[in-house]
Amino acid sequence: xxxxxxxxxxxxxxxxxxxxxxxxxxxxxxxxxxxxxxxxxxxxxxxxxxxxxxxxxxxxxxxxxxxxxxxxxxxxxxxxxxxxxxxxxxxxxxxxxxxxxxxxxxxxxxxxxxxxxxxxxxxxxxxxxxxxxxxxxxxxxxxxxxxxxxxxxxxxxxxxxxxxxxxxxxxxxxxxxxxxx
Length: 181
What we know:
Elements: E1 3-4, E2 8-14, E3 19-25, E4 28-29, E5 32-36, E6 39-45, E7 53-63, E8 68-78, H1 97-111, E9 120-121, E10 133-136, E11 141-142, E12 151-152, E13 157-159, E14 174-175
Parallel strand pairs: 1-8
Antiparallel strand pairs: 2-6, 3-4, 3-7, 5-6, 7-8, 9-14, 10-13, 11-12
């Protein structure tokens, strides 16, 4: 605590008996996965443009006998102090909502699917070898064609630091590929 804009919150619950968990962080449902017999974890992103402030965290517990309890508290989301990139001049069609909207909806339909199975294992790691350079960071605030800084970079652009060191790319964790394009 506090949570930072643009990070992933890990909510871990350890129970003394078998329970089913659910809940909510800010306005997103929590989906828990067992990591061992008594421990469950939920991973939930904190929107990079979420205003800093207090937001609800609720955990819903259903015991084996069907009884339920909920626990709720407010959590602080702090500014990640993302840097502001220099303004970018781009072809206006590349930022036209009529063009970008359908792709945004398509990506959301792919990335918001939650399955009961946990398709990864182990600890997440950097997807690149060393040495590496970050060309553009996640959350960097962006302005296009002289507009206001209302956009942000939604990825991390890794690059080669020098021609003497090739960039090795790795999976961030062991798992199952569920989609390719």
